[in-house]
Design goal:
This protein is an alpha+beta fold and 333 residues long. The protein is built from nine helices and seven strands, in the order ααααααβαββαββαββ. The strands form two sheets. A five-stranded mixed β-sheet has the order 2-4-5-7-6, with helices on one face. A two-stranded antiparallel sheet has the order 1-3. It comes from Pseudobacter ginsenosidimutans. It holds the Pfam family His_kinase. InterPro entries: Bact_2-comp_sensor_kinase, HATPase_C_sf, Sig_transdc_His_kin_internal.
Length: 333
């Protein structure tokens, strides 16, 4: 994406130049030998010179490449600005001498030249600071956009990994149910359909309502229960007042899938899970009964949830494993 050109508002340029010209008139007004024509000439010279420095500096900025930004302060560019400023100030001082012939040209010219150098230095450093800060912001925006694109790619990769694996297991379960004449086969097909419809609908959603996430989680749990039967016990206790809060899609499904992937799920040793609220957190907790040989893990699951929460809400999830439970606390959005 092309970086927008750095610009300063014309109103800022003209307004600041006019203000500087008026400030230069203050010492003249306070002088007991106040001369209106000298004061006006002094202010006009400062105003015109300030306009020149602003627009000249802005005009030369496109040549200020990314390599110059990396180097920082450009002495050559500063000296060039000061040189042109000295020449312009000499012309303005000479024009003032033609209008106000009673002034001593030497001291007046020297004073004007010193003022021009000071204005050039101040404006250059100020514009340089603005320009450097602008480019730093653009770099930060580009990095943030890159992180989001990378996160989206990870999320899509995770979806592609989880869903086919889950679909394979679900179809095997469905095959067994049909062959055994299980009366819940139709319900299983409908729940499987609901789950994948949700997968397609939420493809472009960053956040969904918690009520929607819980609704699809019920379908997901139904499919898991058909596979593991009483080997899984999942309780959900979320008050209605939290139904309209937001959550990244597939968060709860990924946490349930993660628990199944790493823990024993059997009739003799059922995996127990709880989903409930506590303060500003939605908590997903499972009993810890790790498999001796764990499935190959990409490590994308929990990390993806952590990254999405940070990017979408600026809040971090909390992970608390102990000897009995593995607990994930999701902050309220």
């Amino acid at each position: 994406m092309k970086t927008p050109a750095f610009r300063v508002s014309h109103s800022v340029i003209w307004g600041s130049s006019l203000l500087l010209g008026l400030l230069m008139a203050v010492p003249k007004i306070a002088d007991k030998h106040f001369n209106l024509h000298e004061t006006i000439a002094n202010s006009v010279i400062t105003f015109v010179f300030s306009i020149f420095v602003w627009y000249y500096s802005m005009y030369t900025l496109p040549a200020y490449s990314a390599k110059d930004v990396a180097k920082g302060f450009s002495v050559t560019r500063l000296l060039k600005t000061i040189g042109l400023g000295v020449a312009l100030m000499f012309i303005l001082a000479y024009a003032q001498q033609l209008l106000l012939t009673h002034l001593d040209f030497g001291p007046v010219m020297l004073m004007i030249e010193v003022r021009g150098i000071l204005i050039s230095l101040t404006f250059y450093m100020f514009i340089h600071l603005l320009y450097q800060n602008y480019h730093n912001q653009q770099v930060s925006i580009a990095l943030e956009r890159s992180k989001m694109d990378n996160l989206a790619a990870q999320y899509e990769l995770l979806r592609q990994q989880v869903n086919p694996h889950f679909l394979f297991n679900s179809l095997n379960t469905l095959k067994y149910m049909v062959e055994s004449g299980d009366k819940h086969s139709i319900d299983f097909i409908l729940k499987l359909s609901d789950f994948y419809r949700f997968s397609l609908e939420s493809r472009k959603s960053d956040l969904i309502q918690l009520s929607e996430e819980l609704k699809i989680l019920e379908s997901y749990i139904f499919l898991l229960k058909a596979r593991f039967e009483e080997g899984m016990e999942i309780s959900i206790d979320v008050p209605e007042s939290r139904a309209n809060t937001q959550i990244p899609p597939f968060t709860l499904q990924l946490l349930v899938e993660n628990a199944i992937k790493h823990n024993i799920v059997s009739l003799d040793k059922p995996l127990r899970m709880r989903i409930f609220t506590e303060g500003d957190f939605l908590i997903v907790e499972n009993s810890l009964q790790l498999k001796r040989t764990t499935e190959t893990s990409t490590g994308l699951g929990l990390d993806n949830i952590r990254q999405r929460y940070l990017h979408l809400s600026g809040k971090a999830i909390e992970i608390h494993p102990d000897n009995q439970y593995f607990t994930v606390k999701l902050p309220r959005i």
